[in-house]
Write a structure and sequence with these properties.
Belongs to the LysR transcriptional regulatory family. The chain has 3 domains: 71 residues, Winged helix-like DNA-binding domain superfamily/Winged helix DNA-binding domain (Arc Repressor Mutant, subunit A, Orthogonal Bundle); 121 residues, Periplasmic binding protein-like II (D-Maltodextrin-Binding Protein, domain 2); 98 residues, Periplasmic binding protein-like II (D-Maltodextrin-Binding Protein, domain 2, 3-Layer(aba) Sandwich), CATH 3.40.190.10. Helices cover 46% and strands 22% of the residues. The chain is built from 13 helices and 14 strands. Strand 1 and strand 2 form a beta hairpin. Helix 1 crosses helix 2, helix 2 crosses helix 3 and helix 5 packs across helix 13. It is elongated.
């Protein structure tokens, strides 16, 4: 198996037919078919089912594609990284972020990369922490900002900040007061919560308390937009941060109350795959991200406690 075979295989997988794959790779259909036949013979397993209207991947083909995508992307990054060693930083960098991180630094990240590294092609994906983790594990993103990731030898993680969680909802639901509410009183409210799973882990560090909240929730959703809309409709309240619905809180549409006995918090991590070496472009983008996080916290935009020493804001912007 060589890189050409993998590239041709990936083209067939993505294009669905030999003809379209050959056009993309600028080779003859017969040459593409020959390489595919050799690859299947080498692996002793069919990778596609030949049909009149195209090529349908087998289970083995699906599995090989997952590996091929990572291998080809790593090879392209390695080639670009060596080229960049003696010149201007360039290349593709894909970043996945949880909703709160995008809200705090997403626009500034895009602006700073465009200004400082015009030859870097930045791809930014926003999703819930559970989905962001999945994107990272599948190598769809190279760097991820997510909350409370699981312990996994495949992951290299760095805790960046802690956020204190609050109760968010209409005053008539959570109370027309700024006084803190006890966790036991929170459980008596109509709670709207993230659906169970890795995304729910992102709400708080204490798994035992998380299970109690899940058991009492009246609605479980896997959508930030749906939860926000439900809060405004007065269907219930949720556990989040002030940043989560910042504009609605400042306008008075929603209210927040601190939670005590105990306080609830969550930890943001910068995560990468241990098996994937960084490139110059990735290191540059990571430095911008950490500097912007530090700036957002120190300015008060992101109400959190930094867990590491981060560079001053001037290091992040051109």
């Amino acid at each position: 198996m060589d890189s050409r075979q993998l590239r041709y295989f990936a083209a067939i997988f993505e294009q669905g037919t030999l003809t379209r794959a050959a056009e993309r790779e600028r080779v003859a259909v017969s040459a593409l078919s020959h390489h595919l036949a050799n690859l299947e013979h080498e692996l002793s397993v069919p990778l596609f089912v030949r049909k009149p209207r195209g090529m349908q991947p087998t289970a083995a083909g699906e599995r090989l594609y997952a590996h091929a995508k990572l291998i080809l992307k790593t090879m392209a990054s390695a080639e670009q990284d060596v080229i960049d060693a003696g010149g201007e930083i360039a290349g593709e960098v894909s970043v996945g972020m949880a909703f709160s991180a995008v809200k705090a630094i997403g626009v500034d990240l895009a602006r700073t990369v465009l200004e400082r590294y015009p030859k870097v092609k930045l791809s930014l994906t926003e999703s819930l922490s559970g989905s962001t983790l999945m994107h990272l594990m599948m190598s769809e993103v190279e760097l991820a900002l997510l909350y409370n990731p699981p312990t996994d030898p495949r992951l290299k993680t760095q805790a960046v900040l802690d956020e204190r969680m609050v109760c968010v909802g209409k005053r008539e639901i959570i109370g027309d007061t700024d006084d803190p509410m006890r966790f036991s009183d929170l459980l008596d409210l109509p709670i709207i919560f993230l659906r169970q799973g890795v995304s729910a882990r992102a709400i708080m560090n204490d798994v035992a308390l998380l299970k109690k909240i899940e058991a009492r929730a009246i609605l479980q959703m896997n959508s930030v937009q749906a939860i926000g809309g439900s809060l405004l409709a007065g269907l219930g309240c949720t556990i989040g941060t002030r940043l989560f619905m910042k504009e609605r809180i400042e306008s008075g549409d929603l209210h927040v109350r601190p939670i005590v006995e105990p306080e609830l918090s969550r930890t943001l991590h910068i995560c990468e795959l241990t098996e994937r070496p960084p490139t110059y472009a990735l290191e540059a983008v990571r430095a911008v991200i950490t500097a912007l996080i530090g700036e957002a916290v120190r300015s008060g935009l992101w109400e959190a406690t930094l867990l590491i020493d981060l560079p001053p804001a001037g290091h992040a912007k051109a």
